[in-house]
Write a structure and sequence with these properties.
Length: about 290
Amino acid sequence: MECGVFVTVYGRSKTGKSTCTGAAGATGLFIGSRAGLLPLKSFLGIEKINVKLAKDVDEAAELLLKHSGSEMPTIVVDDFSLLVEDTISQLEKTHSFGDMWRALRAQVLRVRDAARKATEKGTHVIFNCHESPPKTSSGKSVRGGPAMPGQLPEQFSAFSDVVARVKYDETASPWKHTLCTVSDAQFIGGDRLSIFPPNAPMNIAEALRAAGYKIPRPKELAWMDKTVEKLSAAVLKAGIEDWRETLRPAADMLLEKHKPQHVRWAIQDALHRAILMNSRKGMVDDLFADSDDW
């Protein structure tokens, strides 16, 4: 059995995190509030969303362990930073200050470990979080990362296979936000499985598919598989810089049969797949560069 991938995405609010993680988890389980998943219906046109509500981080861990396995392709923990805040509010009512932080740390590490166990059963687990800026905690420097108190951003991210920060990129087209998996002195990042290029399109599903992982679509959208494959090949053949001229006629034809949200989703995936495949080809080409160019 193939293991799943543990992905953590973080960034500022209103940058498309829920939509990005929702597209990857469309046939799985979402742990989070129904309101937070509204973009899945409005932007992606997903009608059936399997949602479980968690009152705190501990309950999210229980849901991960209960529902993971071969029959559950993905579990998305949506707005995890807000769930951490809700947990803090609850713990403040029953714990002293020091005990509260110890209890919170134990819960966050428990859900982190539950995510790892879920991937061992073959389920992809994806957390999306708000962004916490670089800071100093207890005299120690803490890099920016998923929004959690103290040293938890580092401790949580250490178990993730992929940690990607949402960045604004003026040169990106047509969507101006990308996923950065590069770790530096200021922000946490990483990709131990080499799934993403350093700055990738904001499309977890297509990156995982390009790396050989199975990310199923809703049954009613199965037509996208062949369409995306065909259109991405056409974009690569014509040149990525001419993607509009390649995809515009195809979009017009698809709109005659399918909902606008679903056409937009297919066109987005086709362009992102072409970009990702071109990036992978570039990585291989670099292996054959003259040593003086390295």
